[in-house]
């Protein structure tokens, strides 16, 4: 696959990586897609919206109270003061913290609460500092996830290569439809479906991949993320896979995915 850097996006692209099911490679994809895009010279901001703060720790940061999108959502802080550098060039993060668990209560009290995340990010978007903003959405269908999708240009849905995997996608597609029809985010669309934890040695993985591709066609990315021990170890060391084991199958898979991801972004911009 061609790994030459692609032209930079025409504007900041906000991508939500989402699935209301946990354990499907969502956070792993945010962290490693961000790292590989940064490796390719893109400026990337990760927004960790999961109170568990796994994306935060996977990029080598410790959660700190008051350093998250929570105070921005409540008007207690400016988003520019919350953005934190990582040890990786071109890669910054808005970390998560446990207080994010209470954000939904605060957001629900606001007028036009579905646009709360969009409003919180307005200054960053207006500055056009980043090529990509990748949001690690919480694994639930609450207000915070809905508001995140309302702020996104597109959604990458991660799906584990196991039966019942498509159950989560039907919920996401219904939510996208409602956000479009209600005028909250009329242009919102699923960018693609990324199959994760794939084990080509098993009939189960092969059958699930064939079923998903048969049902969703070109919406499914060509790249498949393998089940890989090194990929699973990397977060405990606070590193993306491209740093922890750059020669591993997991690292190569995410590099391939970054190329395909950018190719789709360019194609979508060309059609706009």
Description:
This protein is an alpha/beta fold and 272 residues long. It has a single domain, classed as P-loop containing nucleotide triphosphate hydrolases (Rossmann fold, 3-Layer(aba) Sandwich), CATH 3.40.50. Helices cover 42% and strands 17% of the residues. It has 13 helices and eight strands. Strands 3-4-2-5-1-6-7-8 form an eight-stranded mixed beta sheet, with helices on both faces. Helix 1 crosses helix 13 (249-271). It is globular and about 50 Å long. The model has no long low-confidence stretch (mean pLDDT 90).
Topology summary:
Blueprint: E1 13-18, H1 26-39, E2 44-48, H2 54-58, H3 70-73, H4 79-82, E3 84-85, E4 91-94, H5 103-108, H6 116-120, H7 122-127, E5 132-136, H8 143-150, E6 154-160, H9 165-181, E7 189-198, H10 203-216, E8 220-226, H11 229-233, H12 241-244, H13 249-271
Parallel strand pairs: 1-5, 1-6, 2-4, 2-5, 6-7, 7-8
Antiparallel strand pairs: 3-4
């Amino acid at each position: 696959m061609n790994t030459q850097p692609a032209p930079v996006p025409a504007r900041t692209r906000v991508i939500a990586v989402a699935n209301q099911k946990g354990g499907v490679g969502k956070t792993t994809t945010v962290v490693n897609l961000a790292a590989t895009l940064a490796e390719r010279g893109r400026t990337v901001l990760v927004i960790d919206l999961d109170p568990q703060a796994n994306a935060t720790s996977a990029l080598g940061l410790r959660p700190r109270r008051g350093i998250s999108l929570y105070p921005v959502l409540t008007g207690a802080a400016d988003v520019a003061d919350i953005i934190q550098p990582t040890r990786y060039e071109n890669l910054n993060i808005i970390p998560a913290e446990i207080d994010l668990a209470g954000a939904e209560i605060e957001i629900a009290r606001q007028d036009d609460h579905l646009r709360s995340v969009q409003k919180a990010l307005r200054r960053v978007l207006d500055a056009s500092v980043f090529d990509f903003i990748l949001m690690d959405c919480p694994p639930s269908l609450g207000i915070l996830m809905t508001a995140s999708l309302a702020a996104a240009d597109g959604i990458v849905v991660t799906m584990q290569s196991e039966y019942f995997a498509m159950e989560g996608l039907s919920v996401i597609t219904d939510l996208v439809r409602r956000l479009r029809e209600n005028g909250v985010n009329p242009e919102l669309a699923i960018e693609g479906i990324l199959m994760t934890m794939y084990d080509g040695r098993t009939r189960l993985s092969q059958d699930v991949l064939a079923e998903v591709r048969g049902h969703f066609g070109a919406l499914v990315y060509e790249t498949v993320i393998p089940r890989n021990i090194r990929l699973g170890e990397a977060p405990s060391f606070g590193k993306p896979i491209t740093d922890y084991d750059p020669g591993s199958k997991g690292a190569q898979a995410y590099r391939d995915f970054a190329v395909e991801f950018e190719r789709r972004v360019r194609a979508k911009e060309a059609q706009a």
